[in-house]
Design a protein that fits this description.
heterodimer, A: alpha/beta, Rossmann fold, five-stranded parallel β-sheet, elongated, B: alpha/beta, nine-stranded mixed β-sheet, globular
Chain lengths: ~325, ~260
């Protein structure tokens, strides 16, 4: 059976959920061979094996942390040369997409980004994408070279599928461009203890109606009662009420959770582009004419400062 | 020696308009107004600010696209860029990111550059990988997704705010940069700027000028194929209630029914 390279997104050996989802998709088109780079690479092997990786190729070197993107491209290319895979699957994080794209140029292959589903097809894997602010669904495939496809979080279930997960050291030699962009310093983002926005099963977002940074605790309290991530509309972020890293929309994160709760968000195209593919959508807004109500499964026309705390109390009460 | 900045811009269908696909499954550009991609305005803005700081700089805006794409160039020129290059050729219709990036890279090399600045993504295709591909093709450092950027003594520095960390980056010129919408609000063209833009030079190039074969680009030369594009069905109308004191509880009831709580 053909092997499929899966690029592993991990933090010091802790594998992020979208990579496990990729393994589910990779098993539809072949045998997953994982590539884990950097500090903690070998520690990823256990969980990758549980989810279907037949092999885990690992490499660590200071270059991966000290220079931007290119050293990882060199390593992924080394894995590609060693395995000659039927496809290369990469999570749709900002960095991983750039790695995938540069690999595609080097190996003379087409690239599809931000797939939301992947199936085996007669002429290679068929990728589903949500485009034009998710108003269209396209099906595409790579027609030249080895398909390189990046996949958005929450595109497939995480499935247990025990496999060998044999760890093999990957020999990497860095090219002359590997050290072109130096990472002079790195400040880790402070953890909020909440789920990662793009990976969360539930997202609770606040917009213009939240009316001030000091009021966002109302949104956070609901999120915490549901174990959800917190999002914000561009209006709320531009006003300085919430960090840009939490922005949902065209120029922020694109999310696709099981449940999306929009509070005080009108639902402009810029916002819809980032949340329209959510499975269930709920909105609370004072304005009955807000476009967000065109998208909802359930909507409450009312003051979010009354409705949201009541909902939070009710959720907490039901949890007992 | 003058700092040569090339800003890559894209002419896109208005994201607030009703966007569709044409019969050949390329983006329909006829039935919706086009404009300079909003995210590229940030690239033009940062180019202008970097040029202001430099002793001597020249900003060229570059686009690949049909005749109408000149509108995007005019907008960038009216913001303050010095000159424009428009690559236009019927054989380019339907190019994917590999074809487009090949053309851009050749045009950038032909124009001459120290710094290439791009937006973070287009608002139509929204892949966000073109700057990285350009850096790969040009063989120069990529300094991408910056929310802050500056150039001094032949070095570009910037801050990249990632999911896990914020990174300070540094590279020697020549380099390819992309900037996010956090890099600073783009200026509006002034009346004077709009008038001045009409006199600024716009050079037209075709595939022959760039020594690119027609079969390397366009729909046929594309390395990806779109097999189908289906309009997403409108979401079925949901239940909407007016809060009369019990709205939060009613919502909780709905969520419980859907097994979320």
């Amino acid at each position: 059976m053909a092997e499929v390279l899966v690029y592993v997104d991990h933090v010091d050996g802790a594998v992020r959920k979208p990579t496990l989802e990729l393994l589910t998709l990779a098993r539809r088109i072949g045998e997953p061979v994982a590539v884990a780079l950097g500090n903690g690479a070998e520690a990823t092997a256990g969980v990758l094996a549980e989810h279907g990786a037949v092999k885990v190729l690992t490499a660590d070197a200071p270059e991966f942390a000290d220079y931007l993107v290119v050293p990882k491209v060199d390593a992924l290319q080394a894995a590609y040369d060693a395995v000659s895979p039927a496809a290369v699957l990469v999570p749709s994080s900002a960095e991983a997409k750039e790695i995938a794209a540069r690999l595609a140029v080097r190996i003379g292959s087409g690239i599809i980004t931000d797939a939301v589903d992947l199936e085996a097809g007669e002429e290679g894997p068929v990728a589903t994408q949500a485009v034009f602010a998710a108003s269209y669904t396209t099906k595409s495939r790579v027609s030249k070279g080895t398909p390189v496809i990046t996949v958005k979080p929450n595109s497939a279930p995480v499935e247990a599928a025990p496999a060998a997960g044999t760890v093999e050291a990957l020999a990497v030699s860095f090219g002359k461009n590997a050290t072109g962009t130096k990472v002079v310093s790195r400040t880790p983002r402070e953890s909020t203890g909440r789920p990662e926005l793009t990976e969360a099963a539930i997202v609770v977002s606040g917009g213009r109606g939240v009316n001030g940074a000091e009021n966002f605790h109302v949104i956070e309290a609901l999120a915490d009662s549901l174990g959800a991530a917190v999002g914000a509309s561009r209006a709320a972020v531009d006003a300085g009420w919430y960090p840009h890293s939490n922005q949902v929309g065209q120029t922020g994160k694109s999310v696709s959770p099981q449940l999306y709760i929009a509070s005080g968000i009108s639902g402009a195209i810029q916002h819809r582009a980032g949340m329209q593919t959510s499975k269930t959508i709920v909105a609370i807004n004072k304005d009955a004419e807000a476009p967000i109500f065109d998208l909802v499964d359930y909507g409450v026309v009312g003051d979010l400062f009354a409705v949201v705390p009541q909902l939070t109390d009710e959720v907490n009460a039901r949890k007992g | 020696m003058s700092l040569r900045i090339v800003v890559c811009v894209k002419y896109v269908p208005d994201a607030t308009g009703d966007r569709h696909f044409a019969d050949d499954l390329t983006v329909d550009r006829d039935d919706v107004d086009g404009l300079l991609s909003e995210l590229d305005e940030y690239a033009v803005e940062q180019a202008l600010q970097i040029a202001d700081e430099a002793d001597d700089a020249e900003i060229t805006v570059l686009t690949v696209g049909p005749e109408d794409a000149k509108d995007a160039l005019r907008k960038a020129l009216s913001m303050g860029a010095d000159k424009a290059v428009h690559v236009e050729d019927d054989d380019l219709h339907g190019s994917d990111v590999m074809g487009t990036s090949l053309v851009l890279a050749k045009a950038i090399e032909k124009t001459g550059y120290d710094l290439v600045i791009c937006g973070m993504a287009s608002t139509d295709g929204s892949m966000g990988v073109l700057p990285a591909i350009l850096a790969e093709r040009l063989g120069v450092p990529q300094v991408t997704l910056l929310s802050e950027v500056s150039v001094e003594d032949g070095t570009v520095k910037g801050r990249r705010d990632g999911d896990a960390a914020s990174e300070q980056l540094e590279a020697s010129l020549p380099a390819v940069v992309s900037v996010t919408d956090q890099s600073g609000e783009a200026r509006y063209p002034s009346f004077k700027g709009i008038m001045a833009a009409k006199k600024k030079p716009v050079e037209s190039l075709d595939l022959d000028d760039l020594e690119i074969d027609a079969d390397e680009v366009g729909l046929e030369g594309s390395w990806t194929k779109v097999d189908s594009a289906t309009e997403r069905p409108a979401r079925t109308a949901g239940t909407i209630v007016k809060d009369e004191g019990e709205g939060g509880k009613q919502l909780a009831e709905f969520l419980a029914g859907q097994k979320f709580i």
